[in-house]
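F.,

This is the one I mentioned.
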């Protein structure tokens, strides 16, 4: 049953849940350390917890289908009108909506080698053709990507910073790319890890949205805001694009607890700052250890690092399994074509230390 391109889809492989690892390896659940899904090691902000608890009183009612309060909070924060915003059930929802809204079967979608896997899945799910452009230094080669845009290309996905490699594109390069792309091609700049960028690297992509009617900026509440389990993401773009995303989304795609928590988290500057600080320190802790172990890693601008754990193609899977046996969950990236590497999320200092100690033992 179903079209060939749907049957050929490989399901998204998420990080192994803690309970599953505990069962599989006979470990105490409370001792397992998960550094596998680029989650926030601080958990959720207290402000969001309180907002959610209040929202529980109304759980018998449907959520606000238009997410008025949340859009108002996003609008205030980013200085765009509310009809320039579409809410998603996580930013994965936004990525999928973009593929459904702008691409027909057999048309093409451009993204980079080592680009976030959901780009490939969303492309295939609509029966479109993927144009995967070879990476440059583990990141996007924007010139090659602009050159790869074909007559039938309708969508380009770019992650900045990129997952799983952690690479970053400076604002000037991105802006030059946007100028080079024909306006009938929609560009999604996926900024899931934007909040981890230091002040000197920050750029205002929401300003570009005013200039480029074919641009969608995608953001998530799953990372620095600490709300991964609630599933909230959003798209910012001109109404010509956000309205189409809005028409095809499910009417109640963001639930009421998630909306309430997201409003609170968006304005919780102290939590956001702490998340960035904990991440910057933890990142340093990890790369210092990699340096002293003589391990190669890709310098990262996100809340994770890609590290090379061996020279043979079995290395990633082998070291991953050894870590699992010690109760540490990281992410093998063989499915990204990086079988010698592991992606590790930056955790709390003691979590990073436990990971480093385990890795040291395993690598001898
Ligand atoms: N984009 C990128 C680049 C990501 O790494 C992720 C999370 N792994 C997402 C989007 C999706 O996150 P969410 O659906 O939780 O917003």
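My design for it:
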């Amino acid at each position: 049953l179903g079209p060939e391109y749907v049957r050929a889809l490989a399901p998204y492989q998420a990080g192994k849940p803690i309970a599953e690892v505990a069962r599989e390896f006979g470990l105490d659940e409370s001792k397992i350390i998960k550094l596998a899904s680029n989650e926030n090691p601080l958990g959720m902000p207290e402000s969001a917890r309180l907002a959610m608890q209040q929202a529980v009183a109304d759980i018998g009612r449907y959520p606000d289908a238009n997410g008025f309060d949340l859009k108002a909070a996003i609008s205030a924060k980013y200085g765009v009108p509310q009809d320039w915003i579409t809410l998603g059930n996580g930013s994965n929802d936004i990525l999928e909506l973009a593929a459904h809204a702008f691409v027909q079967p057999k048309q093409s979608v451009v993204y980079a080698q080592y680009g976030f896997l959901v780009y490939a899945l969303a492309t295939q799910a609509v029966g479109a053709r993927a144009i995967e452009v070879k990476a440059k230094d583990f990141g996007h080669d924007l010139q090659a990507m602009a050159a790869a845009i074909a007559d039938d290309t309708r969508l380009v996905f770019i992650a900045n910073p990129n997952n799983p490699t952690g690479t970053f594109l400076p604002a000037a390069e991105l802006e030059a790319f946007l100028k080079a792309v024909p306006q009938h091609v929609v560009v999604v700049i996926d900024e899931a890890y934007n909040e981890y960028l230091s002040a000197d690297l920050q750029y205002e992509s929401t300003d570009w949205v005013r200039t480029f009617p074919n641009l969608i900026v995608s953001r998530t509440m799953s990372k620095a805001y600490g709300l991964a389990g609630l599933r909230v993401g959003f798209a910012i773009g001109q109404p010509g694009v956000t309205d189409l995303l809005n028409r095809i989304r499910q009417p109640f795609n963001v639930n009421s607890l998630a909306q309430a928590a997201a409003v609170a988290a968006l304005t919780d500057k102290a939590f956001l700052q702490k998340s960035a600080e904990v991440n910057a320190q933890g990142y340093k802790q990890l790369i210092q250890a990699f340096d002293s172990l003589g391990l190669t890693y890709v310098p990262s601008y996100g809340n994770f690092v890609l590290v090379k754990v061996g020279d043979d193609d079995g290395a990633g899977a082998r070291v991953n399994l050894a870590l699992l046996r010690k109760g540490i969950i990281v992410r093998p990236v063989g499915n990204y074509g990086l079988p010698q590497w592991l992606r590790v999320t930056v955790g709390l200092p003691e979590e990073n230390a436990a990971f480093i100690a385990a890795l040291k033992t395993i690598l001898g």
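The mean pLDDT is 97.

Talk soon.
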